[in-house]
Amino acid sequence: MKPNKKNILLVDDEEQIINVVRAYLEKEGYNVFTAYNGKEALDVFNKESIDFIVLDLMLPDLPGEEVCKKIRIKSEVPILMLTAKVDETDRINGLDIGADDYMIKPFSPKELVARVRAIFRRTSKELVKADVIEFNDGDLIIDINKMEVKKRGKLIKLTPKEFKLLTVLAKNLGKVFTREELIDKVLGYDYEGYDRTIDAHIKNLRHKIEDEENKYIVTVYGVGYKFLED
Q1: Residue 89 CA to chain centroid, in angstroms?
Q2: Three-state SS sequence of the chain
Q3: Which phi and psi (to 5°) does residue 63 adopt?
Q4: Ranges for the OmpR/PhoB-type domain (predicted)?
Q5: Could you say which residues of the chain have pLDDT below 50?
Q6: Is-above-0.70 flag for pTM?
Q7: Strands laid side by side in the 101-104 sheet
């Protein structure tokens, strides 16, 4: 096993999908661990050093959403959800609970591999280079080099995309970004998913960094978002 190889956990109850996707991922040089249900997925995740998870939502024991929630308690590992659900609400819910992206079944294994590569690029820790940014007398502190964010002195957990979204907005005070611009800067120009993904990330970010006294992210209706220091 090469030391720099990425470990991917592939979770699906359909053996054919497991076999096909594993073959494509291994051809790209990834180490692939597999699980056929939610409990097995959590066991593998807790035992192995997993860098990425491809997670089916329709599992025979625990729903994929529950598996995602349990993993998000302890880790920000990138998660790509697989789903047969085409309803917009279901997709947004998946993003709200911490998924990085989703693909609707049936899907192209080649596209899945491309999505995995793109997410790895986006979640690289070499996001931006800057110093420490403080807002409202230390209410919010962003240490970009350390990729740490503190709210009232308490370290808060952000996903890599949430962190990059925050830094893009915070380093451009008052600048209005359209959803398309934020998608390019945060999710990558090759992102082809749902354009309202940004809205879900903004919602999560607001929940983590804002309170009744300090609001930072402003919605510019019909356009997008901007960051303001009260």
Answers
A1: 18
A2: CCCCCCEEEEECCCHHHHHHHHHHHHHCCCEEEEECCHHHHHHHHHHCCCCEEEEECCCCCCCHHHHHHHHHHHCCCCEEEEECCCCHHHHHHHHHCCCCEEEECCCCHHHHHHHHHHHHHHCCCCCCCCCEEEECCCCEEEECCCCEEEECCEEECCCHHHHHHHHHHHCCCCCCEEHHHHHHHHHCCCCCCCCCHHHHHHHHHHHHHCCCCCCCEEEECCCEEEECCC
A3: -60, 150
A4: 130-229
A5: 1-3, 125-130, 189-190
A6: no
A7: 31-35, 7-11, 52-56, 79-83, 101-104
75 vs 46: CA distance, rounded Å: 10
Domains of the chain by start residue, with CATH: 7-122 (3.40.50.2300), 132-227 (1.10.10.10)
Q: How many C-beta atoms lie closer than 10 Å to residue 220's C-beta? A: 11
Q: Could you give the strand order of the β-sheet that contains 177-178, starting from the edge strand earlier in sequence?
A: 177-178, 224-227, 217-220
Residue showing tokens 């592939």: 10
Q: Which long-range contacts (CB under 8 A, 24 or more apart) does 103-109 make?
A: 107/82, 109/20, 109/21, 109/24
Contact criterion met (CB below 8 Å) for 118 and 188: yes
pLDDT in the model for residue 116:
93
The pLDDT score that the predictor gives to residue 130 is 47
